From TrEMBL:
It comes from Shewanella nanhaiensis. The lineage of its organism: Bacteria, Pseudomonadati, Pseudomonadota, Gammaproteobacteria, Alteromonadales. Gene3D superfamilies: TonB-dependent receptor, beta-barrel domain, TonB-dependent receptor, plug domain. InterPro entries: Beta-barrel_TonB, Beta-barrel_TonB_sf, Plug_dom, Plug_dom_sf, TonB-dep_Cu_rcpt, TonB-dep_rcpt-like. SUPFAM superfamilies: Porins. It is found in: Cell outer membrane. This is TonB-dependent copper receptor. It is a multi-pass membrane protein. The keyword NADP does not apply. Belongs to the TonB-dependent receptor family. Residues 69-151 form the TonB-dependent receptor plug domain. Residues 1-26 form the signal peptide. Residues 206-624 form the TonB-dependent receptor-like beta-barrel domain. NCBIfam families: TonB-copper. Keywords: Cell outer membrane, Membrane, Receptor, Signal, TonB box, Transmembrane, Transmembrane beta strand, Transport.
Amino acid sequence: MNRHKQILTSIFTASSCILSPFSTFADTQGCEQDSCDEHIVVTGELMREPAKVFTDPKKPRLPLPAYDGAGFLKTIPGFSIGRKGGAGGDPSLRGLGGSRLSIVDDGQHVYGTCGGRMDPPTAYIYPEAYDNITVIKGPQTVKYGPVGSTGTVLFEKDRHSFSEQDMEGRASITGGSADRRDYLVELKAGDEKHYLDLDINQSSSDHYQDGSGNSVQSSYDRNNYNLALGWTPTDSSVIELAYGQSSGEAEYADRANKAREISNENLTLLAQFEFDHELINGLEFQAYTNENDHIMDQFDQGVNAGSNVRRSTYGGHLWLDLTLGDNWQATAGVDYMSSAHEGRAITADVDFGLDDLLSKPFNDNMRYENSGLFIEASLDMGAGTLLSGLRFDHWQTELFVAQQGKRTDELYSGFLRYELLSGNSQYYLGAGHAQRIPDYWEIMKSSSENYAANKTEKAFNLEPEKTTQMDIGWIYQADIELSSSLFYGQIDDYILIDANTKSASAYNIDATVWGGEFGISYPFSDNLSAQTTLSYSRGQNDSQDVPLGQIPPLEGRLSLDYQDGNWTAGLLWRVVAAQDRVSIGQGNISGQDLGESSGFGTLAVNGTWKHGDAILVSLGIENLFDITYAEHISRSGAGNDVPGSEPMFQVHEPGRTAWVKLDYTF
């Protein structure tokens, strides 16, 4: 971990990685791997380190500045988002979503509550409030809690130590089509021993229209604030107590239920220390607790239907940074997490309305706890580095509904990766294995084994999913930048969600996935540059000899970027192929295949203007030609009931969308 930072004095700007007059104890690789220029990011960051993508969420970017974590990840090649409206998109990487993608919110695991995935973990994340976002592709780390078999996403904030008493911050405001409004204020203040870090943001939008002028039920309104108080007794240590709260509401085009409340409250304690010791170089301890509260109902439509679900999660980790030899470093750690889900609902003809719902007691649904032990190491070997990791997870899960019961799982995950640096090129080859238990949403589906016997048992006896994957890549950095990555994975006991039965069921199959991403950035001159990215994934249900559901089609992006002094201008052409490899009704907890999809192409334009170090104006127009289209990974639009609108086979994407954003640094 890169924590040996001396106190720096520089100017903090709104759209770059330049560090303010304090040092950071968190990893700042996102800035170190980026050129820190201020053009709009339009195709997503290229991979500049093996198996990893680093990006600065404070940069202006296309599409329209993201309201939640899923919207941000959509800008990175390889990601797809299951659209269900303007909020609550469900991210997947390389066609694999749900708990196969591990989302780490500044050290915390924040899980959703809604059985219909109104609030995936990314729904509680406002990306611009974070300092660094890192995507680790494939099962190529064991450090951050239960392993993400398709990848791990880290949303991270920096920790600070002022060299003298000072205060600084930034503010931004965004306005756009469909009455889109975003406000953000960040304030940092402190002295040599203490600091305060405060961010407040709000985002809202009305229903958007597709390219045909049809209104899509998609409104949302969300508020977030976070406060951190830090103590820095030395230049190489920090203790921080942080509190965060968010609340919001949303409507969706794929269902009649509306989210009356989607709220989160969290508290964390973090301690980081560095040591001048022959063996132990650093220590990090973090403890956290968070609770999500979600109310969904149809009361406003005159229907007596509603439920309230809640999830409480607490946990923490202890990491030790070790030097095992002259060229051998390691991190060893333990972590713990416990999460409990409970709910209450209207009983027909007995309870009526919101007051009756909120007066009912909560009933336990499921509880699980995880204890993990890992070691992750790197060994320098000439021009190359060998990285490896091994992890053991002990799970205890208890089901309180249907057949009820308890289960214990002991799982092993690990990886081995070799990285070689040769001139301007980096090469890597990695093998990873990840095991995961069935998550809450999979267990709550019907058990296919008992369905034929007309039983109502849940899928509590699903086998753990086991992914073994190879990752290989080449990165080239000079005037021309190039990154390429390929993967091939075998998934034993893949947990498939099948909606072709009377009620959706979950069962195990074997599957194969493969594909990759490619990107190239080419400077035509000092002012004009181009960037192209391609991403492709393919999946096969080996057990049933059919395509694996919910796999996105081939996608390409081409951007042109022109810079002249304080001005930039650019365009983005996004092209998506048709997808005819489908398994209708099959998929994962994020959704199931609805049918084959048509290809499409969209064009967007953008520009920025920078005034000194204080003001940055960015603007864009997306879907310039106002076409009507839907992504292949999308929910059904049958729940669209905005007055004057029409239901849709799939949820359509927004039509022509214009926006402007103002950043001010002080």
